[in-house]
Design goal:
binds FE2/S2 (inorganic) cluster, alpha+beta, 6 helices, 5 strands, globular
Amino acid sequence: MMKITINGKTQEYDGDPAMPLLWYIRDDLKMTGTKYGCGMALCGACTVHLDGQATRSCQLPMSAADGKTVTTIEGLDENNAHPLQISWAEEHVPQCGYCQSGQIMQAASLLASNPSPDDADIERAMSGNICRCGTYPRIKKAIKKAAEAGK
Ligand code: FES
Ligand code: FES
């Protein structure tokens, strides 16, 4: 029996250990904030935190999450008031919205390890998160604003 703590709650799982974590989050737990984009760890739509690190859940087998702590967009802040969620709303970042939970989870991982990122840090950290709507300038602005707010 595998045990995975997701958004503060321990879940038990005895299914296929090779199943991607994303399937479990979306299909079993019905937490649909985390999106399926490419399924190949190329777009970042499925990004969650695994023991605090931004991780592509579409390519992470359940066996690799056993004993670990996972945070999805639903668990980022209990009041949906993480500094990034506030700055995202203030800057009207999303367009279609599809990529945005992955973008926020990637950015949250960046700010947790580097509270004052410069432009190059942001570009490096966010380069694997694709937005087909091209919201990149607003994403960058919102990350800077959240970093300022956190000082
Ligand atoms: S869906 Fe996982 S990286 Fe694209
Ligand atoms: S907001 Fe549409 S894909 Fe990013």
